[in-house]
Specification:
Elements: H1 2-33, E1 45-50, H2 55-58, H3 61-67, E2 72-77, H4 87-101, E3 108-110, H5 126-136, E4 141-147, H6 151-154, H7 156-170, E5 178-182, H8 187-190, H9 197-200, E6 205-208, H10 211-222, H11 230-238, E7 244-250
Parallel strand pairs: 1-2, 1-4, 2-3, 4-5
Antiparallel strand pairs: 5-7, 6-7
């Protein structure tokens, strides 16, 4: 009996090894895709709009790190993340994270507005957000990247940013800008890390982190020391958003 159990275990390990090799080959092949010209983003000034410090690396690091190679990235963060009274600390952590991701400090703006509290139960006013975004947009910005209608995690603050951007588009305030949103996934895909790669490659706007990018993304997340609770450490290990981003053009 033990012989058959050992044979089954060997077969399972062989299958895992084969699948791992195939996934590695597939991953390396997809990294070559990152070198293809991206006319939508090439030589553009791109504004990434987030809600809280750490959003930039928890959710957008594959996009930011890839865009840095052929465009100029700006960041607009709409709160200091003051939910636990750590706003000043988190703002400093954000600047450290952005430095790791390669975003110039003069291109990072953090908003501290009493009507935009870091609170998962707060309904941010899309009109107020829209005014802040409109005031921030200058002649340099040509592309905007932000959350989609679910905001990755269903966080109300994330969703409010999407609503504000969508509203600006509907009012044709953004008619000269291209807007892309980060596509949310189901809970299973969200936490299968690189195993989500076969499900993501068919997106037209697809960004994959190289091994060096993975290190930079994780380092940026570790810059947010005040937020490194045990479940966020698990997030760093297992979230596909630390490795893979798929964007959708908002029309």
């Amino acid at each position: 009996m033990w012989f058959f159990e050992l044979s089954n275990l060997s077969a399972l390990l062989l299958l895992v090894a084969i699948l791992s090799c195939l996934l590695t080959i597939f991953y390396c092949g997809q990294l070559n895709y990152q070198r293809v010209e991206r006319p939508e983003f090439e030589n553009k000034h791109v504004l990434v709009i987030t809600s809280h410090p750490d959003d930039e690396c928890m959710f957008f690091s594959p996009t930011i790190l890839n865009l840095q190679r052929f465009s100029t990235v700006h960041l607009l963060c709409l709160s200091t993340g003051n939910y636990y009274g750590q706003g000043d600390t988190r703002k400093k952590e954000l600047m450290s994270s952005c430095a790791i991701l390669g975003i110039t400090s003069s291109y990072v703006t953090v908003i501290d507005h009493r009507f935009l509290p870091d609170d998962p139960n707060a309904d941010w006013d899309p009109k107020l957000i829209g005014r802040i975004i409109t005031d921030h947009i200058n002649n340099k910005i040509q592309v905007v990247v932000t959350f989609d209608s679910y905001g990755v995690s269903g966080h109300k603050n994330h969703i409010a940013v999407f609503k504000a951007v969508k509203r600006l588009m509907n009012e044709e305030i953004f008619e000269d800008l291209k807007v892309y949103v980060l596509k949310s996934t189901g809970i299973l895909r969200k936490y299968i890390s690189l195993l989500d790669l076969p499900f993501s490659v068919y997106s037209r706007y697809f960004f994959l982190s190289s091994p060096n990018d993975i290190i930079l993304g994780q380092s940026a997340m570790f810059a947010h020391r005040s937020q490194l609770l045990w479940f966020r450490k698990l997030y760093i290990l297992f979230s596909r958003f630390m490795l893979i981003n798929t964007l959708e053009k908002l029309s």
